[in-house]
Write a structure and sequence with these properties.
The structure is a homodimer of 341-residue chains.
Chain A (H helix, E strand, L loop, with lengths): L1 H19 L5 H7 L6 H13 L3 E2 L8 E2 L1 H11 L7 H12 L4 H16 L2 E5 L8 E10 L2 E8 L4 E7 L6 H15 L4 H12 L10 H14 L8 E4 L11 H13 L1 H9 L8 E4 L11 E8 L6 E8 L4 H21 L1
Antiparallel strand pairs in A: 1-2, 3-7, 3-10, 4-5, 5-6, 8-9, 9-10
Helix pairs in contact in A: 1-3, 1-4, 2-3, 5-6, 5-12, 6-12, 8-9
The structure holds a DNA duplex (30 and 30 nucleotides).
Chain lengths: 341, 341
DNA sequence: ATTGGCACTCCTCGGAGCGGAGTGCCAGAG
DNA sequence: CTCTGGCACTCCGCTCCGAGGAGTGCCAAT
């Protein structure tokens, strides 16, 4: 029985602390939440929770504050994802529906997410390696200079230039184009790259491989395996950092630095890429000590939620139920849009 | 004679204040800069400069601080653009040379700029309206669904989908593609849009305009006049905000908000678009009261420095000579890269 | 025009003192 | 065994005060 009450106390403390930003004491707790026991009882519970590592005191004779472990328990067992209001759903839909291309979808997503959660939002561009090739276009800019346009299912467009040794006739160009598309179109990136590679691998006693084809394929394969573009993320809502208030140097500075480091962001989001659920990383649970006072709430989006990730990063003291709901809602909506287009 | 010394005093104050962040007093001035006069003399000069509005006192009996007007005079008449060291030049070159496409150039520029100036860097994407059409590609995804790829001289690629009423045969597609390219290729955006429009304007007694052509042209023209994409900027180096130190609410918060507002950024940069020189906006000289304690240093880049703008925004208390040099150097280098590719 | 001297202003910093919120513990009641 | 009221204690945050110091403005002298 007391076990149940203790959890209720922890939940109440998390809620109050998130709301007020101040350590919460026993007396205030009994008043705000109608627990029908005395402050002294609560104090005993608090002491127990502190022993177990769910609460901490900033200093003796101050109220209690949840620890990372406390938040973790709260997120895992004490909270339910708060459903979005229809107004919020409509806001997401209205805002994202106007998007014209992939860039636009990503940029708008970042904005809604930042606005809904009042946190810093991060959206990863659809992963190149998980897309399929929709089409490859080859255009002659001059007789010896080709423009390659690689169009992917995710809506991403990559372009590359190729300089040729010799001039290329129109019919040769057409042949080249169709051979390449035959090999690559519809395939997942890795497969397409392999198929293209096979096109130019010399066969003993087979026909000679044209130099132009080799050059084009080399460039395409390189573009396909260019994981740099996998590493692209968009960040928004940094103005929300202003609400951090206290402790500029200890929490905002490292966070700003992390936001500039795309690699760090990707690793943070990456953990979330999994199957369907919203992932929450609290405080020092990750490998980055500098971000000890921040949490990351993220999830995957796209087919199987595996195309890429999006989420937010904010102080450990945040409204987890609401934030998780917003992240999930936006991810779902983005998935739907990508699916339709 | 004293007039000259007064300007020297102003210059010295600006330099010292930028270096130390502290109001500078008469005694410290004579010591650091070997002015061969006594502190009392300097005090008289300072009083005069204050009367003229170039200096201010935080409070009675503190040292002097330059006003916006003081910085302005300093920038206009008392400073020379500090030449970049060869190491810095090499850093810019080395960093930007690796860029593979337009996105990459822009992103890398932001980074170098932020790193060189230790300020928040802003780079505007090459303006769509000032580019020419390099090529239009039309690809049939299905018999009734076309993908249009619009490739511009600035390296920008726009893509749009078109849904057709009726199926389109391969030779019709080829004809359509060549008619469009004939009309648009090589032209500046506005001209290309007009030429395309003319293609589908019905001529009395002329041949009927194919529905497919109309649909494609409409979409292209819309994409060309889509000024939304004109409004794209990239921001970097926000971690440098951490160095603002003092006055979070009065300077950093509004700045962060401005950085999120692309429109504001564009207007700030926009003023710089002019001919060749580096523009400096100091404090309240612009229309944004919220940014009263920040300055913007910007310049154009691209052909005639008119393609788009880049620059930095930072506290009015900044190293103007060094910053201006960095902005100019990066702009020149970016122009060169865009020119070559 | 420049300088040394001098009185004055006002900020900054450290220490002392106080009020209050909150705790821990204990003894007693259900 | 659990809960409760009571009580002493701790420590933070605030304000007040006074000393120290940097810098100024003005004046009389050169």
């Amino acid at each position: 029985m007391q076990e149940e009450r203790r959890l209720a106390v922890l939940r109440a403390i998390v809620q109050d602390y998130v709301a007020t930003e101040e350590p919460v004491g026993s007396k205030a707790l009994v008043e705000r939440h109608h627990l029908n026991v005395s402050p002294a009882t609560i104090r005993n519970d608090m002491a127990a929770l502190e022993d177990e590592g769910f609460l901490a005191q900033p200093h003796t004779s101050a109220g209690r504050v949840p620890t990372d472990k406390g938040y973790r328990l709260f997120v895992d067992r004490l909270s339910t994802v708060k459903p979005m209001t229809t107004a919020e759903r409509r806001a997401i839909a209205g805002f994202l529906d106007g998007a014209v291309d992939l860039d636009d979808v990503v940029n708008r997503s970042v904005r809604v997410l930042a606005q809904l959660t009042r946190q810093v939002a991060v959206v990863q561009y659809p992963s190149l390696s998980r897309s399929t090739v929709r089409h490859v276009e080859v255009v002659a800019l001059t007789p010896t200079r080709l423009l390659l346009v690689l169009i992917l299912s995710s809506g991403r467009v990559e372009q590359r230039h190729v300089e040729l040794e010799a001039e290329l006739a129109d019919d040769e160009l057409a042949a080249l184009r169709s051979r390449i598309n035959l090999a690559a179109t519809g395939e997942i990136i890795a497969v397409a790259a392999a198929a293209l590679d096979a096109l130019v691998r010399p066969v003993p006693d087979g026909p000679e491989v044209p130099a132009a084809l080799t050059a084009v394929v080399d460039t395409l394969v390189e573009a396909m395996s260019d994981h740099r573009s996998d590493e692209r993320v968009v960040v928004g809502g940094t103005a929300n950092l202003a609400r951090f208030g206290e402790s500029f140097d200890t929490s905002i500075r490292p966070l700003l630095e992390a936001l500039e480091e795309q690699v760090v962001l990707l690793r943070l989001l990456g953990e979330a890429s999994g199957g369907g659920a919203v992932t929450v990383r609290i405080g020092t649970e990750g490998p980055y000590e500098e971000l000890s006072s921040t949490s990351v709430v993220a999830t995957g989006y796209g087919p199987d939620d595996a195309l890429a990730s999006l989420g937010i990063v904010g102080p450990t003291r945040m409204d987890y139920p609401g934030t998780m709901a917003a992240v999930r809602a936006v991810a779902r909506y983005v998935s739907r849009i990508l699916d339709e287009s």
